[in-house]
Write a structure and sequence with these properties.
Layout: E1 4-13, H1 19-28, E2 41-50, E3 53-62, E4 80-86, H2 93-106, E5 111-117, H3 125-129, H4 145-156, E6 167-169, H5 178-192
Parallel strand pairs: 1-3, 1-4, 4-5, 5-6
Antiparallel strand pairs: 2-3
Helix pairs in contact: 2-4
């Protein structure tokens, strides 16, 4: 007989980084070019099986990490925190450090993942004008995954032990690595709670 687990997952990140789009792509298999702005927080759930374990994902899309509507008690018992970063915006070392510190303060027991979103957004100004930023270093507009991973590790050094397997380069629009992100969260949760 298999086991059952509930996993609370909270997505953090700046406005318009694509938090809602990642969740709705995963839960509803939908993508909207103009998703409604999140006010406060939105709740979603999805059931999946990982081996013999039945998992109920409680997915929270929050407006900002310091949202006064939710309060610090909301973040208690968060198992996984996903920091969503918009790859069409400049890489902000200090901002990432601030966001990681907020997550650690609000959800100290949560395992932290980073989702670099909009990796294949062909409609962004970067692709149209071939303007390069810290994420994209060639005119094809492809994300420099090795370079970005190094920058993320540098930005989070001393704050968390960030491993390659906790960084996902995603596109909610193209359904790239979205399911892999959430499956990895479930898989790691099962592994961490296995009876030894």
């Amino acid at each position: 007989r298999g086991t059952r687990m509930q996993v609370k997952i909270v997505l953090f990140g700046n406005s318009e980084s694509g938090k809602t789009s990642l969740i709705t792509r995963y839960v509803d298999k939908n993508f909207s070019r103009r998703p409604q702005k999140t006010i406060g927080g939105n709740f979603y759930h999805k059931k999946i099986n990982i081996g013999p374990t039945a998992m109920n994902f409680q997915l929270w899309d929050v407006e900002t990490a310091t949202n006064p509507i939710l309060g610090p008690s909301f973040y208690r018992e968060t198992h996984a925190a996903v920091l969503v970063i918009d790859s069409t915006q400049p890489f902000n070392h200090n901002e990432i450090q601030t966001q990681i510190n907020q997550i650690k303060q609000l959800a100290p027991d949560a395992k932290i993942y980073i989702a670099v979103n909009k990796c294949d957004d062909r409609d962004s100004p970067i692709h149209k004008d071939f303007q390069l930023n810290d994420f994209k270093n060639d005119p094809t507009g492809q994300v420099d995954q090795v370079g970005v991973t190094k920058k993320l590790k540098t930005a989070t050094q001393g704050l968390i032990s960030l491993q390659d397997k906790n960084i996902f380069f995603c596109s909610a629009k193209d359904d790239k690595n979205v399911h892999q992100l959430f499956y990895a969260i479930g898989e790691n949760h099962v592994e961490a709670h296995q009876v030894k």
